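User:
Hi there, any thoughts?
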Amino acid sequence: MKMSIVVRTTTKLVSPFLVTYAAYLMLYGYLSPGGGFQGGVILAVAVILLITSHGYKQVRKKFKFNWAGLIESSAGAFLVLLGLVGLAFGAFYANFLPSEGGIIVPFNIAVGLEVGAAFTFVFYILLRWVESD
């Protein structure tokens, strides 16, 4: 079921700002309140808004949701890699980057992608389950 043209247009206009805000939270979460989890949830909300406003069937025609599983797996593997590289530098998740935030920034990005993909994937599965009833 499609929403009205007003809802679809508003969602198209708001979604890029939500994605930008999610990226801001993931990148600067070590300086201000926020971080990977919050950024990932907002990223998922942007995708879920698009799915809800344009209809499940239309979105499924244009996009395959294999990407959500791929992003989730890749982000999880990157988190493990961060831990193992830190282990090589002396301790699990040791700070080996010389930048201001250290490994917090890549860690927040990986967590944000993991959370965003997981929430999107769960929403997609729930939609498939509801559609089958």
Notes: Residues 127 and 133 are 10 Å apart (CA to CA). The chain has five helices and no strands. The chain has a mean pLDDT of 86. The chain has one domain: 5-132.
